[in-house]
Design a protein that fits this description.
- By secondary structure, the protein is of the alpha+beta class.
- The protein has a single domain, classed as TATA-Binding Protein (2-Layer Sandwich), CATH 3.30.310.80.
- The chain is built from 3 helices and 7 strands; from the N terminus they run H-E-E-H-E-E-E-E-E-H.
- A 5-stranded antiparallel sheet has the order 2-6-5-4-3, covered by helices on one side.
- Strand 3 and strand 4 form a beta hairpin.
- Helix 2 packs across helix 3.
- The protein is elongated and about 75 Å long.
- The mean pLDDT is about 90.
């Protein structure tokens, strides 16, 4: 009976642990659409990304002509991303993290990372829309 309870508890623990991680989410080639007759420029996309990132609590810095590096520090967790952009599209890619259970073999990470990326992406879309 004790062995059976041990096995049940072991499976329950694995189930709880596995619920916390998901395949890592990258936003690739997110299209920038223009509204009306105003053309979207690369500088407009950059400003929208920076405003959205700051609004969502990310620290952002320019690392090259078309790449921004975002860092989010929440409590004991850190996420680092690169956002490449042009006047037509942008992409959000995982770079590094701390205390988010990233597994490079399975490309999984704590589910909260994916939520942060999704929220950032939505915010970028909103700010791009506001600039037009």
């Amino acid at each position: 009976m004790k062995f059976r309870n041990f096995i049940i508890m072991l499976f329950a623990a694995f189930a709880l642990i596995s619920c916390g991680v998901q395949p890592i989410k990258s936003m690739s080639n997110r299209q920038v659409t223009s509204l009306g007759d105003k053309n979207v420029t690369k500088e407009m996309v950059k400003k929208a990304i920076m405003r959205a990132a700051i609004h969502k609590g990310w620290t952002i810095k320019e690392t090259s002509d078309n790449t921004l590096r975002g860092t989010l520090n929440l409590r004991k967790h850190t996420a680092i991303i690169d956002i490449t952009y042009s006047e037509k599209a942008y992409s959000i890619k995982y770079v590094d993290s701390a205390n988010l259970n990233y597994d490079s073999k399975t490309h999984t990470i704590h589910r909260q990372y994916n939520n942060w990326v999704i929220y950032l992406d939505r915010s970028i879309q909103v700010y791009i829309g506001e600039m037009q």
